Amino acid sequence: MITAVFGDALLDPVRAELTPDAVVVIEDGRVTARGPRSTISVPADALKLNAEGLTLLPGLVDCHVHLRSQGTGRDLTDWLGTPPSLWVAATVPAARLTLEAGFTAIRDAGGTPAGVRMAVERGIMPGPRMKIAVVGLSQTGGHTDQHFMCGVNIAPRIPDVPNSVVDGVEPMRQRVRETIRAGADWIKLCTSGGVLSPNDDPHHATLTVGEIRAAVEEAATQGRKVMAHAQANQGIKNALIGGVATIEHGIWLDDDAIEMMLDGGNALVPTLVAPLWVIRHADEGRMPKWAADKGRAVFDDHKESVRRAIEAGVRIAFGTDTGVGPHGSMGEEFLLLNELGMEPADCLRSATSVAAETIGWKGEVGTLEPGAFGDLIGVPGNPLENLELVAKAANVHLVVKGGEVVKERAA
Ligand SMILES: [Zn+2]
Fold it and tell me: 351-371, pLDDT tens digit by residue?
């Protein structure tokens, strides 16, 4: 199948350049040509898609999503009444909303079983391309330990998601192997406490450097990299010393941590909207007090750290922790990054070329170079001049994935 999408303009985020009167040709799911209509010969049998009034750009990439979390806050009574199968079923609308917001590729940061990725790949349900971590691993009492002090463990028991709690170097090796066996493309570790966990403190480092290093080694032997939920300063540093590839959240960066990231070429995935959503849910009474207090306490420091990282030139890969906030709302992160000093072109690169390189999809997603997946979006105007165009799902009028239209809104 050949599809030719004709837009008012084509935006290349890498060069921050607009090509007027552009066409993108997609054949069997991959881009074969793109550029000004006058120079591209469109095959006669191509399905011609008129995207008049729209600027075309590569489909967006979110490096930190949890499709299995519902994004509606945390009501523990609701949670207790949710069977594991319902958690999985809820990924169906989550994946569709993600795609309709213009995010044609994601990295899922834990909780989502491999069957969800396979269902999208097999066309059983619409959704973005995804690389998945399957489970976020933490120590006893760490960020993904859902035991409460009363003795109850509220972690949903999805059979093909391994146990998230692990202690010790050898058990870590085994758990990483189990996680890869369960279909993980990435290994996710929690090297500090977090906001939405009952027993820990985001200021405290968790897992030892030995445990982190063991996970990195085991992942590497099978061609995987490690992403670290790392909020505490020492948790960030331990993760970097242990050899992880990406730092998620990075709430308390100091000059040393920034220097280490610059030296190692590590990406920071800020997820600025996540604490914002914790606070919003809390304001609506949909967040336990302990989580609301932690969310409010970290928000300003988080922004300050990310501002410093942007200024220092740390690689910033777009990620939102959506699943804390509602699915499809992730574009708001663009506005927060911009507010902290990131130029619009850099904001767009963070969610296209930089994100693709970070999660291991360079040249395939986040670009419309020939050979890439035929994933593109259309917005009514130039997002370099107005980031709102990519910040709200309603502004994304056209979404094409692999040459197939998955969202089309009348102009
Ligand atoms: Zn997360």
Answer: 999 999 999 999 999 999 999
Ion ligand 1 residues within 5 Å by Cβ: 109, 321
Q: In what order do the strands lie in the sheet with 186-190?
A: 136-137, 186-190, 225-230, 246-249, 267-269, 315-316
CA 84 to chain centre: 23
> Distance between CA 268 and CA 227 in Å, rounded?
10
Beta strands 47-58 and 60-65 are unpaired
Domains, the chain = 2-59+368-408 (2.30.40.10), 60-359 (3.20.20.140)
Compute the distance between CA of residue 56 and CA of residue 73 in angstroms, rounded to an integer. Answer: 34
Span from the CA of 58 to the centroid of ligand 1 (angstroms): 24
Dist. CA 311 → ligand 1 center (Å): 24
Task: Give the neighbor-by-neighbor strand order of the sheet with 60-65.
Answer: 60-65, 103-108, 129-132
pLDDT in tens, 95-143: 999 999 999 999 999 999 999 999 999 999 999 999 999 999 999 999 9
Ligand 1 mean position, distance from CA 66 (Å): 6
Report the C-alpha dihedral over residues 330, 331, 335, 338, rounded to 10 degrees.
100
Compute the distance from residue 193 Cα to the ligand 1 centre, in Å. 12
377 alpha carbon – ligand 1 mean position (Å)? 25
Residue 117 C-alpha to ligand 1 middle, in angstroms?
18
Distance (Å) from CA 330 to ligand 1 centroid: 13
Q: Is the pTM of the predicted complex or chain greater than 0.85? A: yes
Cα of 65 to ligand 1 centre, how many Å?
7
DSSP 26-94: EETTEEEEEEEGGG-PPPTTSEEEEEEEEEEEEPEEEEEE-TTS-SS---HHHHHT--HHHHHHTHHHH
